[in-house]
């Protein structure tokens, strides 16, 4: 038993050298493993940070909401108590101040607009909206049925057209009042009249000439 214990406790120089080499080989492997573990831990820690870095686009708030939030963040001191007359005088002064600013701004705008108008080139004259252009007036031919009124004749206009369905000639007539300045036309004459401006309550036509006298 004693011999066995001595063999276990005392190692030969060769065995001691082998143990030292094994220890040297084991130590770097442990260091490398710990370095790999640290690198993997750093990667794992940086991954959430990298994911959190890309910030999402801010939601565009309407102007009213932005003003409301700005007012809510503004810290102001409470005003001392004031009477109704003081509050009214403050309101009047504020209105006067705003009115002066409005007048100054409008004056600046007028001056700027005048400068722009003076610097702009002269515009070409526009055509009048209601140009004095005479349209194509209608001309009718008819028979005088009455010349009793002064400077006025009643003319019968006869129409003849073909019916769209039955192909039959349909005749119709209408009467109109025409102005006869010289009382030239008599009853039964064939005359030509032209459209004119309103000359009376019923006259919208004027005599052009007499085509055929009545027999």
Describe the structure.
With 215 residues, the chain is of the alpha+beta class. It has a domain at 139-212: Beta Barrel (OB fold (Dihydrolipoamide Acetyltransferase, E2P)), CATH 2.40.50.140. The chain has 4 helices and 5 strands. It has a 5-stranded mixed β-barrel with strand order 1-2-3-5-4.
Radius of gyration over C-alpha positions, nearest whole angstrom: 56 Å
Largest sheet: 5 strands, mixed, barrel
Question: Using DSSP, what is the number of strands?
Answer: 5
Percent helix: 40-55%
SS content category: alpha+beta
Termini Cα gap: 178 Å
Rough outline: elongated
- How big a fraction of the residues is strand? 15-25%
The CATH class assignment of the domain at 139-212 is: Mainly Beta
The average pLDDT score comes to 81
Count of discrete alpha- or pi-helical segments spanning 4 or more residues: 4
Side by side, the strands of the main sheet go 1-2-3-5-4
Order of SSEs, N→C? Answer: HHHHEEEEE
Instruction: Say which CATH homologous superfamily of the domain at 139-212 is assigned.
Output: Nucleic acid-binding proteins
Taking pLDDT < 50 over at least 5 consecutive residues as the criterion, the unreliable ranges are: 1-9, 27-35
CATH names the topology of the domain at 139-212 as OB fold (Dihydrolipoamide Acetyltransferase, E2P)
How would you sum up this structure in a few lines?
The protein has 215 residues and is α+β, with helices and mostly antiparallel strands. Helices cover 44% and strands 21% of the residues. It has helices at 2-9, 13-52, 63-73, 84-119, and strands at 139-146, 152-162, 169-179, 190-195, 203-212.
